[in-house]
Every structure is written in C-alpha cells, then in structure tokens.
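Exercise 7. Predict the joint structure of the components listed below.
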Amino acid sequence: MDRDSDILIVGGGLNGPVLALALAQAGLTSTVIDAQPAQVHRNADFDGRGYALSLTTVRMLTALGLWEAVADRAEPILDIVVSDGRAGEGASPWHLHFDHAEIEEGPMGHVLEDRYLRPVLLDALRAVPGITHLTDETVTAQATSPQTAEVTLASGRTLRGGLLVGCDGRRSGTAERAGIRRTGWGYAQTSLVCAIAHERPHGGAAHQFFMPSGPLAILPLPGNMSSLVWTETTERAAQIMALDDAGYMDELRPRIGAFLGEIALCGKRFAYPLDLTIANSLTGERLALAGDAAHGVHPLAGQGLNLGLRDVAALAEVLVDATRRGEDFGARDVLARYQRWRGVDVTALAVATDGINALFSNDNPLLRPLRDLGLAAVNAVPGLRRGLIREAAGLTGDLPRLLQGVPL
Amino acid sequence: MSATQSQNSGTVDPAEVAKFEAMAAEWWDPNGKFKPLHMLNPCRLDYIVTQIAGEFGRDPKAPKPFEGLRILDIGCGGGLLSEPMARLGAEVVGADAAERNIPVARVHAEQSGLAIDYRHTTAEALAAAGEQFDVVLNMEVVEHVADPLGYLNACHDLLKPGGLMICSTINRNPKSFAMAIIGAEHVMRWLPKGTHDWRKFITPDELFDLLRRAGLTPEDRTGFVFNPISWSWRLSDRDLSVNYVTASTRPAA
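Solution:
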C-alpha cells in the first residue's frame, strides 16, 4: 500500500494550502493539487480584493506561523457599524454600532488583501517538509476503495493517498465525481468588488449597509483606502459593470454617502454572482469536503473565508487526533466526526445569512421602520449586542483548537 | 487458516478468503454489529495512548511514538486495538481464544498494510510459553473469565518487569446492571442478550485488590462515561459507576 502522501488535497486557493500546513504540524504529509500556474499566484499588483478575517481566523494563522509575515499589512477592524440605507439617502439614523472595546479579545478582526496572504501561503508550502505543491495540474478522475483514494491528473500521473479532500470551490469537481449532490439556489444578485481611496480616514470601522438591492460592506484597508463588496440585482450589476470607471463611481457615490469625503476607484473591478450551494454530505468513502466545496454561502460580512477555515481547522483536528491515537484517519467513523462537527453549523449559518438578507434586501415600506426599530433595539441591549459581536468575530460555537490559537 | 497458508496464498481457498473479508468488513463497520466497541474505541485509545506514553516517556505527538515497545492485545477480536498500536509503531501480538477471529483480523491488517502477529491462543498459554511484553492490553475481558485471579496472575507473568497493564471492565451495582444489561443488551440491542453476566462484574476496589494479589501495583483508575446527548464516550476521574479502566505496573525486578 504505497502512498504518495497521506492526504491528497484538491484545490490551491486558501483552504487547501492552510489544511496542508495544519496537517504538517502533526507530521501528516499532503499533496496540494493546484489548477493555477505558479506565477499567477505571485502577481502582487494591487487588485482591490480583500478578506475580512475574523479574530479566530487570525488566531489560526498565528498558530500556523503565518500571521507574523502579514500582520503589518493587515488593517484592524475596531468598529463594525451596521445600518439600513437607501441610495441617495445614506444610512438611516437607526443603526447598530459594535465597538471592539465591548469584547476583551481586542480588534474584531482584520482586513487583509489577497495579494499579501497568498504569497505567504505559497512560501510556507515550499518551506514546510512533507508538503508537495503541484501547480498547473488538475484532476481528471478519482477512485476510492475502503483502503485508499486515488486521483488521475491531467498530466497522466496517478497519485494515491489515504484520504482525498476537496477544497475546490463551489463547483467542486471532487464532490461531483464522488456523486455528492448539492442543494442550492441563486439569489439573482451579484456582488461587485473593488477598492476605493477616500479623503477622510475610516478610523478602523467596517460598515455594513443594508440597501434594498442587497448589502454593501465597506472594509478598512491600511491608509485611506477601503475594500468594498457591493451587492446588486444581477441585472443591475451587469449594467453597472458595463459602465466605464467614471460611470461606475457615479453609481457608487450615492450608495456610500459623504462620510468618507471624496472617493476614487483603485485597482480592478470584480463581479461574483451570488448563490447558496451546500453539499448534501461533507464526507464520502476516503473523502472529505471543506470550504466552498462543502458550502458556498452568501458572502454577507465576508464570512465565507472564515467559515471555510473553520472547516479546515475542524478537519485537521479530527484527522490529527485520530492519527495520534493510532486510528486510520480516513476511516468512516473518523470522517463521521467531521461531518457531525461541521454539518449542522454550516446549515445554520447559511440559513441565518439567508434570512438576514431576505429581511433587509427589501424596500417594503412596512418592513423598513420595523427593521430600523429592530436594529435600535439590539443596539440598546448591551448583552445581545455583545453576543452578535462575538458571533461576527467567530467566537461562538464549539471551536476547533486552531481557532483558539492552540497549535495541533 | 494457518500462518503458512496466509503466506502462501496459492493454497488458500478463495471462498474462505472472501468469507473472512466479509467478516472483517463486519468487524470494522462503525455502524454494524460492533458499533458499541467503535463508539468506545476513541475514548479507550486516548486512555491507552496517554498511559503508555507516560509510563515509557514517549511523546504522543511524535510520529510512531511506540516504536520499540512490544504490546499484547488480549481478546483482540477483529483488531480494533491491535491496529492502532501497530500504527503507532509498536510490535503487536493479538491473541484471541475465539479461533474464527484470527483470520479475520489477519485479513484486515493486511488490507491496512500493517504487520501484526495474530494468534489463536490464551493469556495462560502465552505465559506458560514464557512470552513477555512491555504492555498488556486487557480490555473488556476479565468480566468474562471463569477465574479472574488465575487470569490476572497469567497477565502478571506476561509483563516484563516494569511493564504496564491496562485493564478495563464493568462495575457491579444497580446502575451498571441497568446500563450494561438492560440498556445495552435489551433496550439498545447493542450487544447480544447474555453477553454479560452481572454477577461477574467487578467493582474498582475488588479489581485493585485482585491486581495486588496478582503481584501488580495499581497506578490509576478512570471511568468511561457515555453521554447520550453527544452520543459519545468520555473519560472521567470521578464517575466509575459503569465502565471503567485501570492501569497497573509489574514492579521492576
């Protein structure tokens, strides 16, 4: 039973490499099969894409020795302001205000640009023993048996391991080839992503405006810059993307209002259609799914990455603990522990973000005052507000050790 | 199937092999006939690994921490404990008095790529042959034997001086009767009726006394507690009311 690696990881985005690094801490070897050519990853131009990293995600990156290299580039989120708005009117006076001084853990999270996180991950993949990173390589076929998992690559190579993990995104080929069906629906919404420079400082505040067409998130970047995730109906989004930069900014300005002063576009514009897609099972024979391959949720409040890393932390912990007690890490009962741990939570968050969005993405004149009152009420009750802050920071639920900052 | 036959597959009846493979699949099915053992296994292994690592000064986070240790698994069944010990680097002998378990365990170890010496024999016979081990795993066996003291004497002899024995069994009180016999055998049907005879259950004090009389030094006792909410087992310092485990050592010569 020769194995090329203990674990075969399909997907070279963020979740796959982080999983490989977490497993390596405990001596489990892995091969990361990455569809991207190596040089694409090293494109360090500013492109405007940023991640809102929750506090627990930052702890995990710290425990894996990755945070130090990016800490200087990350902007701490000191405040989160959630409000109801309508284009042309700016935010309603009834808003929720979360201040990091209300939780003991420090900043509620950090915003980090993709171009800084990715090279650090790639360097770590190269530096840590036991990890093989195959770039520009895709899986064309996979087969599992009670004892092994095997993949065939586009280059014709065959790899064998004890477990196949699909970190290959919301259209996961790994899940599809395993016959794992998905449940999902579209929102007829598209997220527009870009970065802006602004005249006034953001003061470390992240904003979430609930607009009738969909939420607008403003995340603070270092200096007088912010990353925007701006959601519109798919039809409107297509029209806006077709505009030139000046026309695009004319659409954006009234949505943000005047609180940041003059604003200007930096870097590229991106558009991501929104849909919810959940794999009906997170595991199969010698197989597990993590991140968007397991569940792509509405990227409200940038929870997608944090949710994915929560899967990675839980899966790594289950596999490492099993290995240390001598169990076969790819056995059915071991994988069932991961399914039990992450299966429910995923559905809860998908339903929660779906419900919040349905309530707010609506211009019903009866609902608007109601939810304004709801926000004001939550704001008035410190305990409830603290609970929501902890939820946004990822501090609730049964936390994997890595998310507590404890190495495996 | 003898050891010679398994090495020389040309003489093996394929129908027999298929039968053993099917039985091995049954032993190792986490939702099958041996579900209660599979559910308890992570908890048992946590205890065993911690005790062995502590006794022999091994780092349980290192790869193959039990390299160089010789371990005997008494009542090995399909190899649910033998395989993890082998994976952790130990040299493992799995013994079972039920002859049919041996080829089943062998087939599965081979599928798992593990070298384990499975034998159809008893603790008494191994002791009489002068075999000795660093660790003896004596899990859920003592409540089934006719003469517990005689059996534990044999276990003592099987240990090298300074060796460690892990012994688990079931307490004897109304709660254990309700849980292990009525609950596990009659209500949940986890175990066939008649698997356990309540009169043979042993209290922790009685077991410590038996271990001392067998020449062993009791070191630790810990409960295995089933949580019906999380549907899993955990270790407990305090609650030894039903399933429990002990660690004892043979004094160095």
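Discussion. Strands of chain B lie at 70-74, 91-96, 117-120, 133-139, 159-170, 217-227, 232-236, 243-249.
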